[in-house]
Amino acid sequence: MTQAFRINNGGLVNREKKLSFKFNGKSYFGYEGDTLASALLANGVHLVGRSFKYHRPRGFFGAGVDEPYAIVQLYRNGETEPNIKATEQELFEGLEAKSVNCWPSVNFDIGAINNFLKIFLPAGFYYKTFMWPKSFWYRIYEPFIRKAAGLGVASTKHDNERYEHKYEYCDLLIAGSGPSGLSSAYAAAKNGAKVILAEDKPRFGGSLLTSDVNIGNQSGKDWAEGIIAELKTMPNVLIKNRSQIFGYYDHNMLVMSEKVSDHLPSTKKYHPNKRLWYIRAKEVLISSGSIERPIVFGNNDTPGVMLSSAAKEYLKVYGVLVGRKPLVFTNNDSGYETAIEFKKHGVDPVVLDTRKNPVSEIIDEAKNLGINIKNSYVVVAAQGYKKVKSADIASISEDKKQLGEIENLQCDCICVSGFWTPTIHLASQSGNKTKFKEEIDAFVPGVSKQNETTLGAANGVFTLDETLKTSFKAGSELSKKLTEKDYEIAIPNVVEKKSSQHDKFWCVPLPKGKNYKRFLDFQNDVAVSDIEIALREGYRSIEHVKRYTTLGMATDQGKTSNLNGLQLVSEIENKVVPAVGHTTFRPPYTPVSIGAIVGREVGKHSKPTRKSPMHEWHEKNNAVFVDAGVWLRPRYYKRGDENLFEASKREAKNVRSNVGVCDVTTLGKIDIKGPDSAELLNRVYTNAWLKLPVGKARYGVMLREDGIVMDDGTTTRISENHYHMTTTTAQAANVLSHLEYYLQLVWPELNVNVVSTTEQWAGAAIAGPKSRDLLQKLFPNSDVSNEGLPFMGYMEGDLFGAKARIFRISFSGELAYEVNVESDYGNLMWEKILEVGEEFNIQPYGTEALSTLRIEMGHVAGSELDGRTIPYDNALEGLVSKKKDFIGKRSLQRSAFTAEDRQRIVGVVPLDKQTSIPEGSHLVKDDKAQLPNPKLGHISASCWSVEYDNPFSLAIMKDGKNMIGQKLFAMSPLKNKVIPVEIVSSHYVDPKGERVRS
Amino acid sequence: MLYINCPHCGMRSQNEFSYGGDASVKRPELNKEVSDQEWDDFVYNRKSLRGKHLELWQHISGCRQWIKVERDTATHEIFRTFKADEEVA
Ligand SMILES: [Zn+2]
């Protein structure tokens, strides 16, 4: 396959290196340095896809980020990625891509019937047609739209590529490496400022790569190369290509997506696919340039119609002719530059200029080259279906209202230039109040909100001379403020051709009797007629017109369509463009891979995993783990073929009959020190704390100010002014912040310090009737008898040389202790407990058995303390002091909290003593009642009672106090279960609490 | 992402902080008779200002200090920051 449209030499591609690739299954060749777009054009391929709504054939319109059509599905190294712009995708060996938006194929597309049958999906079509009947939506409309539309298919496989995030700080961040970006970067770098220069394309230089100018005594391109080479040697400069700054956020935080590997056949080992940069810059210079805007005419979406700047770029950068019989349609001098490039390569273009008699150096050059120029001429419509074959052209009257006789001109491409639109997206995102600049018919940045400055073409400055002057100055002055250095730079002389004034013309009128589609938004298929409909139907605000017609809402964010849309609205509404205003630009400027945004935070990396010091032992002993907050905890220890239910039952039973040991390292621990510690506890907890003696622990409940239970746990007085607080695993961080809040802001007079010691201590709960015998063997020199260490007592001991804290506290309701040692001794403690405990038939138990034990005892935990309950609801009102004040006390007087029939915890047993009640089930009086069946309460936790060998649940229910003995139903529509139940006391086992004191 | 000047640590990104609400709210003194209205104003009622707002932030991934931040709720501009015990003039 020859590259019929590649010129023999010229361009910046590496002709030494041929690359093969496939498009829609067909093989082609290109060169290293090509984009997929330039390589396809070199092979004469213009048809790349079908349009979004009407499925009209579409080709290439631009040469970069502004491309609205050429979106492909990319296949690379066994993976696939949708929504890739062929104009941005660099060619690599073995690249494969397919068209999107076409079914069954790009050449024969069933959706295009939309076009011929004149269903013609006008503005608001989706809103109007698909609204009724409602039942049609899921079965008919949505599947149809899904099949017919879309910008590719997301992979359903796990993404094996790796993405990184990086944080950077700099003095000056410069977006764009064209003449403006290079000058300001150079000036700032010379002043010693820390500079980051970002270029979205693979090549630095921006417009200097394609424009015919001289800077100093070099060509613009050579000057750019020199500056870049020097910047690269400077240690205070970071210069990045393939890097798109796509978002400008608060306080000068910008986000940039760097394509690290997309241009390679596969990602190198240890390299990311993309890198997302979060950059905090003291000053931001926006040198993002400008995008040529089209002139609107009939069938202006036909493949072969493209921006004149794109045609020039394909020729100058890639050595590719977009056609051999080009027609240039322009309202300004830029079209002539493209025509001149064609002519220099032996191709004869025809130029249609809407202006009557423009005069400038560029036009003179074109005339001298003998280029055929027709003044006061326009393209009325492109002809050809899958490719431009000719153009209907006509002369146009001076008022631009009347067309002359239509002539047909043979051509194979139409290069259109409607002047330039500054790329103001980043400035607008930063909060800049943009203003309309009459001379260029476009918006430019106005008053900056953040430390941002827009320069060059992005600021509506279209001469190189002024761009260099203002950019050198801005780079120098902004950096001088930061570094206090002032390096003198001689601004080079510029040789450029002067342009004449562009024509304020943007849309060709329809000839009589013709009804051509004239597209404004190419990606979303929004035509002039759609805007007319929207305005006729009463839409006025540009934001509403945008949403109703979808103008500018596609992935290209209207880069080529916004201003023409505004011109149309302003013309119909008879307003000036600034009064219409533009829609708000929001990040991202261009689509960003979800993978890049997610970064490394995938799967297990999405949050830190915390493991107890005994984790390895658990692993070796067949623990099955469960996520508990950020911790991994053993749920049960599997023996043989046991399942969760069997194992947890065995473990819980063993606690009730012998002794068990449970890893409780994950409990939150807070060290509290200072003379006012008792006073703090007294204010934080609902019960009294001033008289707790040294060496004693106490159970406490803390509330939020709104009276809701925040957390519970035991706190132990270690010494006179030293306390050890425990919190639930889940609330540990919140409780610490809560204490700090009151100590720092509300009661700063309290002399207390708090610090988290959760990870400093490893904890083991030893529970069961034989726990004291075991403890005595572990601590032979300590008196752990009922007298020596009574219930809620505390002592310190020596555990095989390790200093241990021994608490006599119980969550299981059995005689129980908790031993803490410094984390590094955790394993020693654990192994010794199991070793010494062997003669008492000790077994480790996991969180499932732990739950069983606490549920049948009626001890509350997170499922009851769920942020909706007060102490009374949990049968904890006995812990609420009537004498002293504490956090949240005043709220407990709320009428709902003191109501006679206030909700309260109860126990629930199924009548058949067999059927487990799903957690979350609702308690109802009548299982056959009409829906919505009044809910009396909900099941908060369920277990299999090992004491009674039947299911048992806890519930929070309305008027729970008076419900004991009632026969009700537990209903779980989710599990499709209706279970007859009896309400019993929540203290199902050992209601008097004798065991813990035994 | 906001850039907050912690009076103890210097300029730090917002993701090191957690938000703590209106800093002008004063907790009623302990052991004092408080009317329903006063208590509601303390616990629930907030002005939700548009514009300059004095608010609390805690530097949780830094010095763990609660600080006061004067911020414009509409533009996110931060004017001044204060230590917990600093008087806001
Ligand atoms: Zn700090």
Polypeptide structure, described:
The complex is a heterodimer of chains A (998) and B (89). Helix content of chain A is 23%, strand content 28%. In chain A, strands 8, 9, 12, 13, 14, 15 and 28 form a seven-stranded mixed β-sheet that branches. Chain A is elongated and about 115 Å long. Chain A folds into six domains: 14-148, 2Fe-2S iron-sulphur cluster binding domain, sarcosine oxidase, alpha subunit, N-terminal domain (Ubiquitin-like (UB roll), Roll); 163-290 and 422-495, FAD/NAD(P)-binding domain; 294-418 and 501-517, 3-Layer(bba) Sandwich (FAD/NAD(P)-binding domain), CATH 3.50.50.60; 608-666 and 759-857, Gyrase A, domain 2, CATH 3.30.1360; 668-757 and 866-888, Aminomethyltransferase beta-barrel domains (Alpha-Beta Plaits, 2-Layer Sandwich), CATH 3.30.70.1400; 898-998, Elongation Factor Tu (Ef-tu), domain 3 (Beta Barrel). Chain A is of the alpha+beta class. The termini of chain A are far apart. Chain B starts with a strand and ends in a 6-residue tail after the last strand. With 89 residues, chain B is mostly beta strands. Chain B has one helix and six strands. Chain B has one domain (3-26, 36-83): 2-Layer Sandwich (Folate-binding fold), CATH 3.30.2270. In chain B, a hairpin with a 5-residue loop joins β5 (66-72) and β6. Classes of the chains: A alpha+beta (998), B mainly beta (89). The interface between A and B is medium-sized, with 24 and 26 residues. The complex binds zinc ion. Zinc ion binds at residues 6, 8-9, 59, 62-63, 65 of chain B.
